[in-house]
Design a protein that fits this description.
There is one protein chain. The protein is of the alpha/beta class. The chain has 2 domains: 7-18 and 34-76 and 175-315, Rossmann fold, CATH 3.40.50; 82-166, no CATH class. It contains 12 helices and 8 strands. It has helices spanning 7-11, 82-94, 102-115, 121-134, 142-166, 179-188, 201-210, 214-217, 233-244, 258-266, 287-294, 308-315; strands spanning 44-45, 52-53, 65-68, 192-200, 221-224, 251-255, 270-274, 300-302. α2 (82-94) packs across α3 (102-115). The longest helix is centred in the middle third of the chain and has 25 residues, at 142-166. The radius of gyration is 19 Å and the shape is globular.
Length: 317
């Protein structure tokens, strides 16, 4: 374990949790998705690879610190989570007595769930509570909806976790292709790698252990906590830059969610969008992810890490 023990050490104690009725969206730490890049010029691919260069990198200082998102970027343990979250939300919305059909509610839930994808799970539950209130219902605390969702998610992924623990399921089958290769190559370059996830920290740590990749991060693993305002990926990045006295130009980030891409770019770093096809592992970029992540400034887009060696060579050229 390094000195970066976890989110409690990273942020310190922050108090101030209060009921949803007293909160305003402007007070939330993490901004909602907003497209900032409307158009990009012609992109190009590194010859013989699936690495799409959206914005050619200038020669300069190579990366010294690398931040990874977890779910969908490295881990596929939670693949299919929207198929659990959206139906749970539809049930809660129907309890308000709304005349909207389950199909219409599913479309509404799917829309805001995916728009908020990349933020801590609690933000999706905050939005659910707001939608319930708009329909005349009395929402529970968002944490209660998060717990309900998580219980159902564990029913879906429990066998995966158990299979990884017993060895019945190979870790590689639940990793984004090439994940171990990119981590090996980065560590060989002597850089420090970090995990920053919107999933609860204890589960990120558990699942990183199950996938046998936790040791790469040497304790530099951060995730959501009950007091959601005390954690954000932006704060992880700020701590990295401050404690290591490095410029943002030395920062590299990988992610399939807009939050980490936006945070890396805001800090002056290089952002690699992992437009992973989580269900099929096809090696082709997910078109929705690709467009969404280019829209917040991604410099490079990859479908997975199958071309890890070529990517690292490009980044260190």
């Amino acid at each position: 374990m390094s000195e970066y023990g976890g989110v409690d050490d990273l942020i310190g104690d922050i108090s101030g949790s209060y009921p949803i009725a007293a909160r305003a969206m402007s007070e939330y730490i993490e901004d909602d998705y907003e497209r900032s890049v409307r158009e990009v010029g012609p992109t190009e691919y590194i010859t013989g690879t699936g690495i799409e260069i959206v914005r050619p990198l200038r020669a300069g200082t190579p990366p010294a610190h690398v931040v990874f998102d977890f779910d969908g970027t490295l881990s596929l343990v939670r693949e299919g989570w929207p198929d659990v979250m959206v139906p749970m939300m539809v049930e809660a919305l129907l309890e308000t007595g709304t005349r909207e059909s389950p199909e219409a509610l599913a479309r509404i839930a799917q829309d805001f769930v995916m728009k908020l994808n990349g933020k801590q799970t609690i933000y999706q539950m905050i939005r659910l509570a707001e939608e319930i209130a708009k329909r005349g219902g009395t929402p529970a605390e968002p944490a209660a909806y998060k717990q309900r969702y998580h219980e159902r998610l564990m029913e879906r992924i429990g066998a995966r976790r158990e299979g990884l623990a017993s060895g019945a399921i190979a870790a590689e089958s639940l990793l984004v292709p090439g994940s171990r290769a990119i981590l090996d190559l980065l560590c060989a370059r002597g850089v420090a790698v970090y995990l920053a996830s919107g999933t609860d920290e204890r589960y990120v740590r558990e699942e990183a252990e199950l996938l046998a990749i936790a040791d790469y991060f040497e304790g530099r693993i951060y995730g959501a906590v009950d007091d959601y305002k005390s954690f954000s990926k932006a704060r992880v990045i700020e701590r990295i830059l401050r404690d290591n006295a490095v410029d943002g130009a030395e920062l590299l980030g990988f992610g399939d969610g807009y939050v980490e891409i936006l945070n890396i770019k805001s800090a002056g770093g290089t952002a690699v969008a992992v437009a992973s096809d989580e269900s099929a592992r096809s090696g082709k970029p997910d078109a929705w992810k690709r467009d969404r992540l280019i829209g917040v400034g991604a410099d490079i887009v990859i479908p997975d890490f199958a071309d890890a060696a070529a990517l690292v060579e490009y980044l260190w050229r």
